[in-house]
Amino acid sequence: MQATLLGILGLALLGTLHAQDSIPVQADFQQDKLTGRWYSIGLASNSNWFKEKRHLMKMCTTIISTTADGNLEVTSTYPKGDQCVTRNSLYTKTEQPGRFSYTSARWGSKHNIHVVETNYEEYALVATQISKSTGSSTMVLLYSRTKELSPERLEMFTQFSKEQGLTDDEILILPHTGELGAQGG
């Protein structure tokens, strides 16, 4: 019984590692070009919080900057009710350019972040594998330098999300929030 359980756990871990390896990373990633203001245009996820909050989600503003030690400071401002909420995250660089890790003390989760594809001036496609004690989930974000993206970029986001195993009801093009001020709120 114990050997079977260990075998199953081993296969599950191998599957998780394989899933992380199967997510591509931008070739010749240039971190300094990723910095600046982005708008979250698309969000796809198979997590429970996404399913519960999907109908409330709107476009948010994200500012990415490089820290002195070469990690990424990611500050997202989004509407919540009639106010704006700001969240700061520190994405720690890994040995592979374009891949980062983040641990959320608040949610007890580990995030394996991949900058899948970007041209730095228009869009960035980011995929995250999230692991917590209750299980794992996948999240795909589509960032844009402006509040609008071409239908081709939106289709690329949808297609990539489906390749990650996400379904139509787990993929969302975020509605505009109205006027976002200097800080996005």
Strand content: 35-45%
Helix percent band: 10-25%
Number of H/I helices: 4
Order of helices and strands: HHEHEEEEEEEHE
Query: What's the story with the biggest beta sheet?
Result: 8 strands, antiparallel, barrel
Please tell me the overall pLDDT.
Answer: 86
Structural class label:
alpha+beta
Low-confidence sequence ranges: 4-20, 179-185
Distance between the termini: 55 Å
Strand order of the largest sheet: 1-2-3-4-5-6-7-8
**Looking at the structure, what is the overall shape?**
globular
Summarize the helices and strands and which ones pair or pack.
Layout: H1 2-22, H2 31-34, E1 36-45, H3 48-53, E2 61-66, E3 72-80, E4 83-93, E5 99-104, E6 109-118, E7 123-132, E8 135-144, H4 151-163, E9 171-173
Antiparallel strand pairs: 1-2, 1-8, 1-9, 2-3, 3-4, 4-5, 5-6, 6-7, 7-8
Note down, in words, how this protein is organized.
The protein is an alpha+beta fold. The chain contains four helices and nine strands. It has helices spanning 2-22, 31-34, 48-53, 151-163; strands at residues 36-45, 61-66, 72-80, 83-93, 99-104, 109-118, 123-132, 135-144, 171-173. Strand 6 and strand 7 form a beta hairpin. The protein starts with a helix and ends in a 12-residue tail after the last strand. The model is unreliable at 4-20 and 179-185 (pLDDT under 50).
